Amino acid sequence: MKIVTKTAKFTNPLYLESGRILEPYQIVYETYGELNEDKSNVVVVCHALSGSHHAAGRYEGDRKPGWWDSLIGDGKAIDTKKFFVICTNTIGSCFGSTGPMSKMYPSDQPYRFKFPVITIKDMVKAQKILFAKLGIDKVEAVIGGSMGGMQALRFAVDYPGFAKKIIPLAATHATRPWVIAFNEIAKEAIIKDPDFKGGAYDPKEIQEKGLTGLAIGRMAGHISFLSPYSMDRKFGRDYVPNEGLYELLGRFQVERYLEYNGYNFSKWFDPLSYLYIIKAINLFDLSNGYEGLEEALERVKSKLYLISFKNDLLFLPEEMKEIDLAMKRVGKGDLSHYYEVDSDYGHDAFLVEVDKFANYINEILEGKR
Amino acid sequence: MKIVTKTAKFTNPLYLESGRILEPYQIVYETYGELNEDKSNVVVVCHALSGSHHAAGRYEGDRKPGWWDSLIGDGKAIDTKKFFVICTNTIGSCFGSTGPMSKMYPSDQPYRFKFPVITIKDMVKAQKILFAKLGIDKVEAVIGGSMGGMQALRFAVDYPGFAKKIIPLAATHATRPWVIAFNEIAKEAIIKDPDFKGGAYDPKEIQEKGLTGLAIGRMAGHISFLSPYSMDRKFGRDYVPNEGLYELLGRFQVERYLEYNGYNFSKWFDPLSYLYIIKAINLFDLSNGYEGLEEALERVKSKLYLISFKNDLLFLPEEMKEIDLAMKRVGKGDLSHYYEVDSDYGHDAFLVEVDKFANYINEILEGKR
Questions:
Q1: Which candidate from A116, A258, A313 shows the least CB-CB separation from B184?
Q2: pLDDT of B195-207, one tens digit each?
Q3: In whole angstroms, what separates CA A347 from the centre of its chain?
Q4: Do B188 and A236 make contact, defined as CB atoms within 8 angstroms?
Q5: Which of B113, B115, B216 would you mutate first to test chain A, the one with the most A CBs within 10 A?
Q6: C-alpha atoms less than 13 angstroms from C-alpha of B106 in its C-beta half-sphere
Q7: Maximum CA pair distance of chain B?
């Protein structure tokens, strides 16, 4: 599989949903496989909150491959022998595309809190501009999970006919207060952390030491990504050996897991980017700019394949089902397909239980669904 | 309804499950109604994590009555014209019973981290000693929700025959990693908060200013006490007026609610007590000290009325159902009753949807169930 990572720079302003502009800006993206002559074999993959453009393959020296490597590759469900797969790092993120720690032109200082609020609509608009620059006006499919699924849905509504197929997984049509509440833990923990310094932190220092506030926010995230069932299987009531059962700060294994992953995460993800991206997730409502969900969906011309996960406690299956029902109400039932994956893993199933839906995605891309 | 608040002091050591001792110690308790001559009309009510002995009635000048006032009172489901209701503040808590901020005899300094870890078994043992001192050897019922339900279950197993009826609500037989994970947010946020000062904080200062770490932990708690459905009803996607939609720190109503309640809570609850009580909850396993759940339940002589709530996302209905099934397996099915309240409110339903189960509890106490 051929992997290429590139950076595209744009000097024209990006007009944002908020009314503000981003200028200049850049987008880092990665491609897998080869673009065919008539540019008709493109599959766009959109990443989630903490993801990046590195969706598949392995960089030299890396312990782990890209976040959806089990799905994307030669002979895999998203077959890179056949498709040219593109994954961009969303604007607002911290892996190379313009975000809050990018320099605020013409100064050489980072934006920090001066960075404009970004929405899912903006992330998608920026990608669309990139694709146009690459000469890609139509794609076979847009696919993504969680926030990636939100982007896929926005592509369906904002750019009707751009993609033949839209495949959102583990997402919603509008972020519920339940999810905003989990994000609030992160927001509050980050902004109140003295080491965050009101946004004036030294990023190198944080990469070395981590940031407690972000770690705590990420721990709350992990809870929402799992389920009581997957936690039972992963940890049960196991206690960390050598930490006294009757010591106040002795830990159950689940506590050690959360701490380890939370603090580790806080060393490689930028806290301001985290704040901006959860804001984008909180603001997401497919009906924004329309009378309601139905009016938004009336624009859809792509086939919609809605994939949810039975015990997803962050974005409940019923939320994806509502999209399917609304599509039927606006007379587009023939375009809409709803598929519930039988899983008790929780939200993260879209990342870790790929074997449960890889076939389905492959059949969609092969035109068998 | 006659309300009396008292403090009982004990100079004999309390032998704790950890092997440590508490000496001396005191228990604050409140009673409602009148004890009859043969002391046969006692109902014990056990409080949850943030509760106190003040279960019913209203103190002069108070805005709110006790936490289960809608259930306890003259003519109410737990009828104080008939029953003498006792509610004690658990040891480890911060409303008058001995806890981590109590003076560590013979010094006049508080225990702080030197306070021994307390278990649900210890909380129940201390109550049992208090009741013996009051000449109460048998009670009509022990009832409680959440951590109060854990205490009720411990009464059933540790003191068989002490209560005729045991009525745990919204509880479990063993705390799952899912719940420990929510508590971990609080633990980490508290101990890492610089204002916590490694436990050396000035309690008066915290009562005035609150403590961010405890506030954040409580916010995580609130999420686990609610459900996506109750949050939809309470907040929807409503935004705080005058806080810009595209301002990074502008808030949805659910965020304002969590912040308000979190910070408010951190002014009236002691952070060390919070750490000790969540530890007790984490450690709770009814089978501790026995081969397993069945062996523990073989000891039960009381009638068991297990009440769960359909969309309780903290302690799932299936966890209470497991107790009922285990009772059947040990041939005590005739003593066990399982009742699932149809509610989508979440865990807090045991506090806020009292009308949905008040009748059932009344019928149990009246001998009609």
A1: A258
A2: 999 999 999 999 9
A3: 12
A4: no
A5: B216
A6: 0
A7: 67
Q: What SS3 class is residue A293?
A: helix
Question: How does pLDDT run across B83-102, given as a tens digit for each residue?
Answer: 999 999 999 999 999 999 99
Q: How far apart are CA A150 and CA A48, in angstroms?
A: 9
Which positions of A are annotated as active-site residues? 146, 312, 347
The residue length of chain A stands at 369
Query: Which amino acid does the sequence have at B4?
Result: V
Which residues in chain B are contacts of A264 at CB distance < 8 A?
none
B/e letters for B5-39, b = 16+ CB within 10 Å, e = fewer, are eeebebeeebebbbebebeebbbbbbbbbebeeee
The answer to whether the Cβ–Cβ distance between B176 and A276 falls below 8 Å is no
DSSP character at residue B335: G
Q: Which stretch of DSSP H or E encloses residue B85?
A: strand B84-88
State CA B10 to chain mean position distance.
23
Per-residue pLDDT tens over the stretch B48-87? 999 999 999 999 899 999 999 999 999 999 999 999 999 9
Report how far residue B187's alpha carbon sits from residue B113's, in angstroms, rounded to the nearest whole number: 13
Q: Do A248 and B174 touch (CB under 8 A)?
A: no
In chain A the domains, ranked by start, together with CATH numbers, are 3-174+286-365 (3.40.50.1820), 179-279 (1.10.1740.110)
Average pLDDT, chain B: 98
ipTM above 0.90, yes or no: yes
CA dist list (Å): A149 to A35, A124, A305, B118: 24, 11, 11, 46
* A185 to B220: CB separation less than 8 angstroms, yes or no: yes
Phi-psi region of B57 (alpha: psi -120 to 50; beta: other; left: phi over 0): left
Identify which of A310, A366, A368 has the alpha carbon closest to the alpha carbon of residue A339. Answer: A310
> With bands split at pLDDT 50, 70 and 90, how would you rate the model's confidence at A295?
very high
